[in-house]
Amino acid sequence: MLRFALLRILSAIPTLFLVIVLAFMLVHAAPGGPFDAERVLPPEVEANIRAAYHLDEPLQEQFVRYVKGLLRGDLGPSYRYRDYDVSEIIRNAFPVSLLLGSLSLLVAMAVGMSLGLLAALHRNTLLDRAVSAIAMTGISIPVFVIAPLLILVFAVRLGWLPASFTGSDSATRLVLPVLALALPQVAYVTRLFRASMIEVLQSDYVRTARAYGLSTDSIIRFHALKPAMLPMVSYLGPAIAAVLTGSVVVEQIFGIPGLGQFFVNGALNRDYTLVLGLVIFYAAMIIVMNFVVDIVYGFLDPRIRR
To answer: What structural domains does the chain harbor?
Structure first.
């Protein structure tokens, strides 16, 4: 198992370095600069500002300087949020994004697995077709459409929930963002768990258990649930990535002071260090979570370790 974990770690290092290289090149290739929105400055003042942030150096020297800072854990200062380092911004905003993403994943797994199990037990019935239709609808509608619809129905028309994160101090302000972020994942989890449960229920050892007279509840609980969970564990990596990227849109729509809002503002303001820091942080977190998923999958299925 240790060799399996070491191989996963070694394969993650070039992946993260490639993300750093591509993100650095793309950010600096974008037109404009971090100080273009400032009032017109004398050339000597603008030159001093660029020199202070090392923006007057050749691009390859800027990259080497940035990588050296990363090795020390320094993501650099923000160009637009004065007196704030990128690391400090991430530390302050990440707990909000983590809470939003965690609640969304919990809702998606709980609701999606329940619907998938229900559809698998009633295969090819009207209930199964209804659940599949709902799942396909959830997959087809993007987050930036779901979120305004939820606001329109539950906040504007019905007035049950606040329309924005800052519109209330109670826990109800999280309901609409969590639902908007969880609904697409509910659809994916439902379809995946339905297919996995149907395959397990058709296996030989489940038929043997039925022949011994075990009830459906006992078969699912003691024989079918664990093997049907294996695809769900492997899906957690992509699900976390989808939740993170979706939270950028949701946080902007609902005015949530998380990483997504800083990412959008940093991109609009050409805040190089902030955008780079957030991209690297997102990539590192996704790599770490995929590594955890691989380790858990290896424990559940010994064939993976071999």
So the answer is: 95-255 (1.10.3720.10)
